[in-house]
Recover the amino acids of this structure.
């Protein structure tokens, strides 16, 4: 199939960017979206142009690197799917596809489609851990049985890949879904309970400092989240936060 | 040829590690504050090592090419992690895990390392649970297990099909804790381009800031290479796109020996290649072989009809199917080790029984599992006489809970619903057992330079068993390296800060800049990918699932020609002082072009078949691998040479005091 691509090109963080048209022929339905981008880049290189920079690594929907706003939707039209797992069979011959980076104050553009998501790391650094030493003097793993339903729920919260689509989807660029997923994982496990108060306070504080917006409960984040992280996580985080406020 | 000293401690196998720990030197807490360690790589091995070293009090810097430590390739591991917990009461023990691993590796690994791995395995699970890793649990609230290939017990811990993700996020959380305390400073989007040696010791690295293009010097008292494996030398593999050999290879260039480069794992269950545009291959976890049965049609004409689209596999009757693994290996069936399963698939496809257009695919079928699980599910829910249809429906739900993400991934890529028709799979490059040679302390042949995780060669011999790479990465990082590096660093307490203002750093930086310039200034005829794909094809066709002397010789020639052409004619667009993915790729492919030749040489030198290294000249009558213990029970450790074919071989003889060398049989 033949496509009309409109891709955001921006040379660096301080340079103005713009959408550039790239017609592309010979796209096959079995290609992934990123393989389509590979073909475009190969073509650009051969024509003496500079290829489009984009983040990617695993191409299996698990590392959370890839981040493309495709026709205004984070990760494109297919629900529960990262850009790297999106296949071209979802598009038709002659389609125009607009490809942009995530847009959020807390995610400045580095180059073309690449943004700086280190704010997410800093939220995790603020408290996204259990303070246990790693030198191996822990108790037997089975000494605390955990209700299967709770363990499963903690697991589902922990499957967030840190891609940032939730922020990109939100009109306020809020990072609540991402932050709440980690808080929920630990809040649901007995190992995480002890530090729940400090954790939620520290992570929320960091989230605010990074310049992410407020949550106005539109649920757009959940709709676009490629891993189906649920809004209940946000509700749980709010409860934890309120508890912390009362205690604190 | 030098004789390599593995520094394996004296004493009985099961006391070596404890005694060693008791006897090695420690660094007191006040001195640790004055010691700097660089960790290159933030996968399971790097993150766990960095977190633990930071916690112990050292000043740690981590480096990764990703934008966050959490995105290291370990994140993609699916199926599980082994540990000799014996929670299932099925007779597991440290010895059994050790034995399975030695046998699985076809008796080409070091006994003492492998035993230590088994010994610390249980503690990994305790550690991870304490960190909040949400492993799968049974209804009673205890941890669940599954089985992996090559073993007869159920010792694999898992978190659905996302075990690597959960373990890495656990290590990342501990790393974050140390970053928050200021003990670890992360350098993300930074690539190590050289190792700096001062007075014979590793004293730092040269790195490129991938965002600004700046070349930076970083000094330290020790350097840990945990940069993962080199499967991408084949271009197509299940590894992440950026996985590479650069850090390990540049260390090799500076004098570290590279061991057993030809030991590669070709994983039997991956989604087959679909076309020329393919950029990577996707694994379908080995855990699926717990429940899936592998087969091809019994009759060639059925296979042909399926390839032509005139028949469908699902419609073939039971008696027309050849469950060839169950037929050839009744004891282990579908759970034979990976090398055995891969070769068997290739054998069937070469014989004309393949089931997709290219003829390179076999079926992985879940129908029997749907029925089996569905029946149990129906009975436990008080449904005494379920119909077959009901059973299948219930069974599909059970399977969905176990492997839902894998089934979704399959459907996305292959555009077929694996709940309705069997999956089609074929072997693909997956893991590299070879790597930097290390002694028992995980130290390379360069003092002060250590290697952990997939980047070292240590524990898996010629074939790695499933679910043991995650185990090794975390064992190295949490439990081994933090002790052994202390022994080395105890001699560094008076060294003082490492200055980067020395001729050695200057020279290394100059070399690095020269290399980049050379890449940027080549004639610009072909893209980097053009070379990478060509190299991959040579590797797959001549150094892949089966190898022979003439092919290996011609592979060496072809790779050396390709390398010369690359340096003259590669086209690297853009500039060196901005983010430039083409330049990043070019640096990696340049190293693959050297490694590839050494790989072929190593394979040519090893005149036997063992594990993943199958030489057509050395096989039994029924096509099984034929080892030569008399002449080849050694680790091949190569010294660096610009012309890899002239590399010097150093041998570490493998001594087996605790297991008897046997022909590996899974029949
Ligand atoms: C699809 C897949 C599934 C798997 N499933 C399983 C499983 O179920 N069980 C199991 O036991 N094993 C599994 N494995 C194997 C296992 O995942 C890996 O062997 C293991 O995770 C490697 O960990 P590592 O820490 O050594 O390296 P990696 O996780 O590969 O990390 C490498 C790190 O090095 C960094 N790096 C690399 N080069 C440089 C450089 N030059 N400069 C700076 N940084 C650099 C990277 O950024 C990264 O942080 C699987 C592998 C694959 C491909
Ligand atoms: S919550 Fe979903 S969208 Fe947000 S970072 Fe996590 S996986 Fe991505
Ligand atoms: S590239 Fe890893 S999630 Fe898309």
């Amino acid at each position: 199939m033949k496509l009309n691509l409109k891709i955001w090109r921006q040379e660096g963080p301080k340079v103005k960017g713009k959408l550039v048209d790239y017609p592309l022929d010979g796209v096959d339905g079995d290609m992934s979206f990123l393989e389509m981008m590979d073909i475009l880049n190969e073509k650009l290189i051969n024509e003496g142009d500079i290829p489009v920079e984009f983040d990617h690594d695993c191409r299996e929907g698990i590392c959370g690197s890839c981040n493309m706003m495709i026709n205004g939707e984070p990760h494109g039209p297919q629900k529960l799917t990262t850009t790297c797992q999106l296949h071209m069979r979802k598009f038709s011959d002659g389609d125009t596809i607009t490809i942009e980076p995530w847009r959020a104050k807390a995610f400045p553009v580095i180059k073309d489609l690449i943004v700086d998501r280190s704010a997410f790391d800093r939220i995790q650094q603020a408290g996204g851990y259990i303070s246990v030493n790693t030198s191996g003097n822990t108790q037997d793993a089975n000494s605390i049985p955990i209700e299967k339903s709770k363990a499963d729920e903690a697991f589902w919260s922990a499957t967030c890949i840190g891609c940032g689509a939730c922020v990109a989807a939100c009109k306020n660029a809020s990072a609540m879904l991402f932050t709440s997923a980690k808080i929920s994982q630990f809040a649901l496990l007995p190992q995480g309970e002890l530090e729940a108060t400090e954790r939620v306070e520290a992570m929320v504080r960091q989230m605010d400092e990074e310049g992410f917006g407020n949550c106005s409960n539109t649920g757009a984040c959940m709709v676009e989240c490629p891993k189906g992280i649920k809004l209940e996580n946000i509700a749980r985080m709010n409860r934890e936060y309120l508890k912390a406020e009362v205690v604190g | 040829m030098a004789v390599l000293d593995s520094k394996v401690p004296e004493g009985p196998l099961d006391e070596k590690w404890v005694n060693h720990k008791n006897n090695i030197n420690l660094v007191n807490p006040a001195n640790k504050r004055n010691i700097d360690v660089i960790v290159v790589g933030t996968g399971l091995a790097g993150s766990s090592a960095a977190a633990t070293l930071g916690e112990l009090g050292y000043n740690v810097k981590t480096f990764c090419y990703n934008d966050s430590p959490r995105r290291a390739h370990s994140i993609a591991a699916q199926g599980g992690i082994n540990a000799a917990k014996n929670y299932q009461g099925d007779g597991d023990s440290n010895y059994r895990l050790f034995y399975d691993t030695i046998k699985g590796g076809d008796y080409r690994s070091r006994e003492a390392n492998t035993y230590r791995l088994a010994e610390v395995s249980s503690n990994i699970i305790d550690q991870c649970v304490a960190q909040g890793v949400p492993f799968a649990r049974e209804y009673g609230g205890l941890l669940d297990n599954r089985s992996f290939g090559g073993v007869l017990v159920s010792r694999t811990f898992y978190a659905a099909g996302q075990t690597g993700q959960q373990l890495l996020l656990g290590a990342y959380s501990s790393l974050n804790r140390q970053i928050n305390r200021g003990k670890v400073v992360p350098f993300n989007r930074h690539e190590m381009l050289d190792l700096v040696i001062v007075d014979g010791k590793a004293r730092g690295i040269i790195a490129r800031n991938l965002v600004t293009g700046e070349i930076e010097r970083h000094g330290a008292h020790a350097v840990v290479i945990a940069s993962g494996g080199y499967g991408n030398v084949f271009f197509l593999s299940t590894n992440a796109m950026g996985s590479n050999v650069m850090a390990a290879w540049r260390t090799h260039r500076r004098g570290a020996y590279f061991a057993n480069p030809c030991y590669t794992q070709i994983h039997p269950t991956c989604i087959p290649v679909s076309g020329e545009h393919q950029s990577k291959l996707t694994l379908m976890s080995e855990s699926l072989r717990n429940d899936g049965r592998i087969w091809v049609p019994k009759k060639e004409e059925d296979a042909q009809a399926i390839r032509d689209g005139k028949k469908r596999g699902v419609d073939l009757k039971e008696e027309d199917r050849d469950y060839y693994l169950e037929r050839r290996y009744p004891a282990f069936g579908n759970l034979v080790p990976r090398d055995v399963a891969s070769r068997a698939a290739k054998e069937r496809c070469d014989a004309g029984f393949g089931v997709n257009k290219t003829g390179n695919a076999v079926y992985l079928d879940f129908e029997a599992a749907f029925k089996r699980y569905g029946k149990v599910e129906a009975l436990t829910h008080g449904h005494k006489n379920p119909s077959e249809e009901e059973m299948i429906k219930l069974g599909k739900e059970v399977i969905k809970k176990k492997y839902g993400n894998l089934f979704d991934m399959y459907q996305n890529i292959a555009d077929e619903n694996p709940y309705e028709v069997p999956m089609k799979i074929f072997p693909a490059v997956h893991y590299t057992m070879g790597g930097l040679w290390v002694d028992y302390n995980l130290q390379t042949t360069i003092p002060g330079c250590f290697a952990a995780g997939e980047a070292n060669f240590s524990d898996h011999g010629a074939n790695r068993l499933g679910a043991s790479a995650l185990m090794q990465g975390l064992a190295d990082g949490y439990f081994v390296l933090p002790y052994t590096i202390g022994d080395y660093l105890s001699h560094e307490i008076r060294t003082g800060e490492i200055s980067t203002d020395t001729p050695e750093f200057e020279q290394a930086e100059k070399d690095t800049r020269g290399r980049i310039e050379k890449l940027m200034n080549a004639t610009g005829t072909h893209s980097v990918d053009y070379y990478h794909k060509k190299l991959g094809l040579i590797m797959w066709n001549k150094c892949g699932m089966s190898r022979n002397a003439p092919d290996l010789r011609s592979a060496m020639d072809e790779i050396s020609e390709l390398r010369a052409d690359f340096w003259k004619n590669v086209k690297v667009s853009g500039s060196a002082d901005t983010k430039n993915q083409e330049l990043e790729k070019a640096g990696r492919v340049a190293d693959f072009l050297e490694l590839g030749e050494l790989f072929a040489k190593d394979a040519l030198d090893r005149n036997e078949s063992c594990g993943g290294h199958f030489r057509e000249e050395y096989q039994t009558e029924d096509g099984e691998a034929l080892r030569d213990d008399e002449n080849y029970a050694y680790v091949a450790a190569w010294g660096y040479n610009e012309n890899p074919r002239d590399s010097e071989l150093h041998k570490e003889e493998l001594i087996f005091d605790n297991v008897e060398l046997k022909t590996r049989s899974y029949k």
